[in-house]
Amino acid sequence: MNFKYPKNEKLKSQTAINLLFSEGKSVSKYPLRLVFVEIPNAEEKLQIGVSVSKKHFKKAVDRNYFKRLLRECYRLNKHLIQENIEKPYAMMFLYQTKDRLSYQEIEEKTIQLFTKFIAEIQK
């Protein structure tokens, strides 16, 4: 299993991000939300970005802390998604609460969210 989070897996394309928020679908498991869209002609099977609301965390230090946690949870559990998708997807992983959850709680919610995502795309 590859637990890396290489540069080509990071969602950076402005057109993909615009497509994501205009046509994307989402699944959520409080306090996390995953917005996703299928991308034709993508080099990488999975591209993901993380976001934490400035509305909930005014200080950049706090936002960066939760973004690091989200990236780490993704990195350790991405195999759940990669084993179950055939088409390339772009995703945005969002933390949407003022609550300061622990890493264990966030990781548990991430696994539940990824399971919910897999169920959604296999419909």
Overview of this structure, please?
- The protein has a single domain (12-121), classed as Ribosomal Protein S5, domain 2 (2-Layer Sandwich), CATH 3.30.230.
- Helices cover 42% and strands 21% of the residues.
- The protein is built from three helices and four strands, in the order H-E-E-E-H-E-H.
- It has a four-stranded mixed sheet.
- A hairpin with a 2-residue loop joins strand 1 (25-29) and strand 2.
- The longest helix is centred in the middle third of the chain and has 23 residues, at 60-82.
- The model has no long low-confidence stretch (mean pLDDT 94).
CATH class: Alpha Beta
Strand content: 15-25%
Q: Strand arrangement, largest sheet? A: 1-2-4-3
H/E order of the elements?
HEEEHEH
C-alpha end-to-end distance:
27 Å
Uncertain residue segments: none
What structural category do the secondary elements indicate? Answer: alpha+beta
Identify the overall geometry.
Answer: globular
Protein name: Ribonuclease P protein component
GO biological process, one term: tRNA 5'-leader removal
GO molecular function, one term: tRNA binding
Pfam family, one: Ribonuclease_P
Describe the structure concisely for a colleague.
This protein has helices spanning 14-23, 60-82, 103-121; strands spanning 25-29, 32-38, 46-52, 89-95. The protein has 123 residues and is an alpha+beta fold.
Please outline the helices and strands.
Blueprint: H1 14-23, E1 25-29, E2 32-38, E3 46-52, H2 60-82, E4 89-95, H3 103-121
Parallel strand pairs: 3-4
Antiparallel strand pairs: 1-2, 2-4
Helix pairs in contact: 2-3
